[in-house]
Structures are given as structure tokens and as C-alpha cells.
Design a protein that fits this description.
The complex is a heterodimer of chains A (296) and B (275). By secondary structure, chain A is of the alpha/beta class. In chain A, 34% of the residues lie in helices and 29% in strands. By secondary structure, chain B is mostly helical. In chain B, helix 4 runs antiparallel to helix 7 and helix 8 crosses helix 9. The chains are: A alpha/beta (296), B mainly alpha (275).
Chain lengths: 296, 275
């Protein structure tokens, strides 16, 4: 079931095109990451879906409802980038307020705070929270009332690696229950295993979309082979891989994905001179850089 | 709608309480009221008016400066602060209207003003009864009038503060605009009118334009209404003499009109804010 449909969504501000004819659909339970530089249009896209901005052209549709309409608001949860709640209230008070605004029982506050790991800090003022704790509180308010669509703007900035893992585990539970999740991120490597699809924006245009594995294959970026020769095996290894670049004790070889099997056979031929070897695929960051270069 | 208004108002009141605005405002009003009611003890014997009525006349002149100032201090951060913290964008994605957000904030902050003037005027009343005896009962009606007109005046400047908060977008800018508005509306406006009267020397400006200009300003309406409605001490204000000719309903209408008009102006300004 389709939760979000964007058709030729465009936002112009004076001469600047913040978002340029973007088409996108999100089905229930899908996790999609928006990636792109600062100013690529990620936040603009979210604000248009939320009804905070009006499109210059095109439409957005949330399960059949217009952005900003009462039903769309009730179905959608949002976590803004770098949200800082009022420092004078406690996490519990703030969350009870948000629950009441959504027409949910304020008594759910403690359960939600426990879910995001803030149970102990519930009675402390937000002014004493760390950035990561504020981000968790922001996530807690986005969890209110089982939203059908969740928009998360840079949700993991300020979170430590353990918190990030917990955060993505929560998102996994939500998507399993049918919530469509659209999140933006700079930390490309962390979304790699945790989203179904990525959408790459560059200067307001959608320049690529698809599962990360496919984008990587399309980019056809070279793989890197790292060879660890034995104490006296280095000359043999260097002879078998004349193109290898010495990197301290190891040798690095760059090759295209198509040559993978050939390279494997060459490794086998010098196996007795090797302690170990590794093959490193290009990270999402490199894939993204390649896509951005092509789009420019 | 009521739930959303009530929860917005309650968290705003909590914030005002934690920021100590409630305590500061009440202490400020209480302290000034105490000083005025003690100092106001001297002239009572001469004019044959009860102690509390004299105090109310002095309090009117105090409140006309202090109530708008407190209201602007309490309200300037309302929208600009949320915009800066990033919670404004979040709030506007909730199933809550801009009118409800503004209404909730206005209700909570009006309660802060009511508490402050209530405290201050109660201190004045108690002092007057202690110093002037049971005769002060005669002044209770004037005191009550001062209470509700102060709340109306406060509500006006709260909404004007919200409007400035929307226009400025940043808390520091909103604070600056608030101070400017206070100076113009409460201080410079009267000086301008006085200068006009002096220059005009009893001409058309003084007889026809001046009374309307006086009533158009909510602070002046507050002063005229309280001084004119109480027969006590017109001499307490420089402008009261000039205002003696104005019918009582005009400043009253102005006092009732301004809170509504200012709230609508704030709502219109809020409508133009893009988070």
C-alpha cells in the first residue's frame, strides 16, 4: 500500500530552485534514505511533505490526503534536524504535552521514554540533557500514536554508535509494523544495511534511486585488494601483482568488479607467500561521490 | 480544541514559572505597590478622600508603565524562541492550529499578568486598610476596576509582543522591538501629544484630534478610564486634566477593543511565519 506519493514536486524560492520536479513513492513498511549535500533539497522535501512549505509546482499526497491537512498531520510524525526543546521543562512534561496535542493519553509518556532509553532522565530538565538525549526525546515524540509515515531529518546526528544501533533497531520494529520511514542522513555508511532504498538528491534534483547494492553496481567503482605477504614472500607477491602499490607492510591492488574472479585466481597462485588478504568494496560515500560527479 | 489549548497554556505557564517570570512580575508589582501605598498616606487628610482611592490613583500611573513592560518581557520569546529552538516546525506538524498555539500562550501569559497585578494590588489594599482604617472600603471599587483594566492592558501588550516575536524571527530582535514598542507607546506617544498641544495652543488639534489620539493608545485609555471613573484624584496625572472632557465610554471601548485587535494582528503575523 502506497503511503507517500510525490509527483513532480517543485519548490522555487526567488531564483533558487530548492527542489526540482521530484517523483517518489513510499510503500507501507519501506525505509528510504534521502542522501545529498547540505542544500541538496532534503529538508525542503520534508517540509513540503509536512505542509510547512507550499510547492511551486507538483503535488504530494499522504495516503490520499493533502500535506498539512488534519488527517495528514495525524498520520505523519516528524523529527526536525537539531531540535532543542525548552530547557526549563522536563522530558516527561514535554512528552505529556505532545501526547495531549495528538489526543493520546498523557500516561503513555513514561513507556515511550523507556523505549528510547530516557526512563531515568524523565524527571530531569531538558536543559541538562546532552544532544543525544534531546535527539532521543525527539524520537520519542515521533513514536506517538503509531504514525503511518515518519519523516526524520538527520536523526542520528549527535548519537553515539551504540545509540545509533538502538535507534535503527527501533526503526526496524516500526517498519515491520507498517510505518513508512523517510530519513535523511550525512552518515552514509550507517544507513547502508538499514534502509531498503536510497534516493540521491543533488541541487534539488533526484539523480539516483534504488537499493544500495544496485547503485554500487551501476557506479562500477573499483574494489581494493589488500595483500599481506609472509616475511620472505614479498618479492613473489610483488612479481605476481606488478600493478600493486606498496602501503607499508602490505600491497594494495585496485581492480574493477568485472575482474573479480581473475583476481581471485591470481591470489590462489601466490597463496603460499601470503599471510592474509582482504577485498574492500567501495563504501556508500564513494558511490555517492561518484553519482554526484556524474550529476554535476 | 480545548485539550490542545489547555495543554499549550499549561506548559507555557510552567515555563513562565520556571523562568521565574511569575515571581519577578509579582515581586515587582508588589514592591512598587507597597511603596506607593505607604507614600500615598500623606495627602489623604487634606482632600478628604479615603486612603485606598488615593493609592489607586498612584497605582494607575505605575501600572501604565509597568504592566506593558512586564507583558512584553513575558511574551517576546513566544514564537521567535520556538523558531530558534526548532520546536516551531515540529509544533506546526502536530494536529494543532496556529490560533490554538497562540491562544494557549496568550492564556498562560495573561494568567501571569493577572497573578502579578493581583499580588501587587492586594499588597496595596492591605497596606491601605492597615494605614487608613476601614474607610478604605470606599476605594475597593476603584481597585477592582484597576485589576481588570490592568489585565486587559496586559493582554494587549502580550499579543503585541507575540506579533513582534513573529516579525522578528529571532529572540534578540524581538526583545529589541519590544523595548522600542514600549518606549513609543508608553513614553514618547504622550510626550508627542503634549508637544502637539503646546504647539497648537488651544487650536483645532487640541479640541478635535487630541482626544481621539489619546483614546487610540491603549495605555492612555487605561490611564484616562481609571482616573476619570474614579472621582478621586485627577491631579495625579498631567494628562488627566486634558482628558477630563472625554466621555468614559470611549477609553473603555478602546480598552476592550485593543486586546482583540492585537490578538488578531498577532495571528496575522504568525500566519506569515515559515518555519
Amino acid at each position: 500500500m502506497t503511503i507517500l506519493t510525490l509527483s513532480r514536486l517543485t519548490r522555487r524560492h526567488d531564483d533558487l530552485v530548492a527542489l526540482d520536479a521530484v517523483n517518489l513513492t513510499l510503500a507501507a513498511g519501506e525505509r528510504v534514505a534521502l542522501i545529498g549535500h547540505n542544500g541538496a533539497g532534503k529538508s525542503t522535501l520534508m517540509k513540503l511533505v509536512l505542509g510547512l512549505l507550499r510547492p511551486s509546482e507538483g503535488t504530494a499526497d499522504i495516503a490520499g490526503h493533502a500535506p498539512g491537512s488534519p488527517v495528514a498531520r495525524a498520520l505523519t510524525a516528524y523529527l526536525p534536524e537539531n531540535v532543542a526543546f525548552h530547557p526549563a521543562v522536563t522530558g516527561r512534561e514535554q512528552l505529556r504535552h505532545y501526547l495531549r496535542l495528538r489526543g493520546a493519553p498523557a500516561g503513555q509518556a513514561d513507556a515511550l521514554l523507556e523505549k528510547v532509553g530516557l526512563a531515568e532522565a524523565a524527571g530531569r530538565r531538558i536543559g541538562a540533557y546532552s544532544k543525544g538525549m534531546r535527539q532521543r526525546l525527539g524520537l520519542a515524540q515521533a513514536l506517538i500514536g503509531q504514525p503511518r509515515l515518519m519523516l526524520l531529518d538527520e536523526p542520528t546526528s549527535g548519537l553515539d554508535p551504540v545509540s545509533r544501533a538502538e535507534f535503527y533497531a527501533l526503526l526496524g520494529d516500526l517498519s515491520a509494523q507498517g510505518t513508512a520511514i523517510l530519513l535523511s542522513s550525512h552518515a552514509l555508511s550507517e544507513i547502508e544495511a538499514r534502509t531498503d532504498r536510497v534516493v540521491v538528491l543533488s541541487r534539488g534534483r533526484k539523480v539516483a534511486e534504488g537499493p544500495i547494492a544496485r547503485l554500487r553496481a551501476e557506479a562500477a567503482l573499483p574494489l581494493t585488494l589488500i595483500l599481506h605477504p609472509t616475511a620472505d614472500g614479498r618479492p613473489q607477491v610483488a612479481a605476481a601483482f606488478p600493478e600493486a602499490v606498496p602501503q607499508g607492510p602490505v600491497l594494495a591492488v585496485s581492480f574493477l568488479p568485472a575482474d573479480k574472479l581473475a583476481v581471485t585466481r591470481r591470489i590462489a597462485a601466490v597463496a603460499q607467500s601470503l599471510v592474509d588478504y582482504e577485498i574492500e568494496a567501495a563504501g556508500l560515500d564513494a558511490v555517492y561521490a561518484s553519482i554526484s560527479r556524474r550529476a554535476a | 480544541m480545548l485539550v490542545r489549548l489547555a495543554t499549550t497554556a499549561s506548559i507555557e505557564f510552567l515555563i513562565a514559572l520556571r523562568n521565574r517570570w511569575v515571581v519577578i512580575a509579582a515581586a515587582m508589582m508588589g514592591l512598587f505597590a507597597l511603596v506607593l501605598s505607604v507614600a500615598g498616606a500623606a495627602p489623604t487628610g487634606d482632600i478628604g478622600v479615603d486612603h485606598l482611592s488615593v493609592t489607586v490613583a498612584s497605582l494607575t500611573s505605575l501600572a501604565v508603565y509597568l504592566v506593558p513592560l512586564i507583558a512584553l518581557l513575558v511574551s517576546f520569546d513566544a514564537i521567535a524562541g520556538e523558531a530558534e529552538r526548532g520546536t516551531l516546525a515540529l509544533h506546526l506538524t502536530y494536529p494543532v492550529s496556529r490560533g490554538e498555539i497562540l491562544g494557549g500562550k496568550l492564556a498562560a501569559q495573561t494568567a501571569v499578568i493577572a497573578l502579578a497585578v493581583g499580588t501587587g494590588y492586594a499588597v496595596a489594599a492591605i497596606t491601605s486598610f492597615a494605614l487608613g482604617g476601614a474607610g478604605a472600603v470606599a476605594g475597593l471599587a476603584a481597585l477592582w476596576r484597576l485589576v481588570w483594566t490592568s489585565v486587559l492592558l496586559g493582554a494587549t501588550f502580550l499579543s503585541l509582543g507575540h506579533m513582534l516575536s513573529c516579525l522578528a524571527r529571532r529572540p534578540s530582535g524581538a526583545a529589541g522591538l519590544g523595548v522600542a514598542l514600549w518606549l513609543v507607546a508608553v513614553v514618547l506617544y504622550d510626550l508627542g501629544l503634549l508637544a502637539g498641544i503646546v504647539a497648537d495652543d488651544g487650536g483645532g488639534f487640541t479640541t478635535r484630534v487630541f482626544p481621539w489620539l489619546l483614546v487610540a493608545n491603549p495605555a492612555d485609555s487605561f490611564r484616562i478610564y481609571n482616573l476619570a471613573a474614579s472621582e478621586a484624584v485627577g491631579a495625579a496625572s498631567g494628562l488627566a486634566g486634558a482628558a477630563a472632557s472625554i466621555a468614559t465610554w470611549k477609553p473603555l471601548a478602546s480598552l476592550l477593543f485593543w486586546p482583540v485587535a492585537a490578538a488578531l494582528m498577532a495571528r496575522a503575523a504568525f500566519g506569515r511565519v515559515l518555519p
